[in-house]
Amino acid sequence: MEKMRSPYLAIGLAALLFWPFSGGVQAEPGFRGMTHNYVYVEPPQAAPDGPFLDILGVQHRLSQHRGKVLLVNFWATWCPACIIEMPHLNRLQEILGGDRFQVMTISQDTGGTQVVENFLKKRNLKSLPLYFDPKSELGKAFGQPRRKGLGVKGRASLLIDAKGREVGSLIGAAYWDSPEALTLIKGYMTEAGKPFPSNPTPQAGN
User: Fold this and answer.
1) Phi and psi of 134, rounded to 5°?
2) pTM more than 0.85
3) What does the pLDDT read at residue 30?
4) Residue 62, phi then psi, degrees to nearest 5
């Protein structure tokens, strides 16, 4: 019994490190993360456009992806909830990724890019991009102040519509490849006037 409870305890503790600071409206029952509900941002707000880096140190901005729906996920290799969530994000990118949608996994590790690259390779997560926010500059712009001894504290995943507006967020891990999550994201893709792909919907965890 203790072994069964331990992963969920780890998720709950990690969620305390990724806690929302801005208000929102919880989604109707239908899509919930492992510990928290998806929360709508109403009305949608312009997403921060601070710089983040790729593996070569080149600066990027979210505005470069305008026209796509983005799922921006702040994570770290030391975060238990993130470790559980990454395969589901990888599968989501495989299903919906393209010129209409992109998963933006942005690492907040401070130990260098090799640590993150090795983490993804070890787990065969080939579909996720390598982006970095080592000083949490973009994270802070989204409302993630650092607190001594607690690391990054703020929302883990944020959904950005094709107009560059933050439309929702979710803290902690989630089954982003679940039918409920796919329906949520496809709804924003439809709003943008772009039909979503017709890939078969997998069951969560597959």
Assistant:
1) -60, -25
2) no
3) 57
4) -60, -30
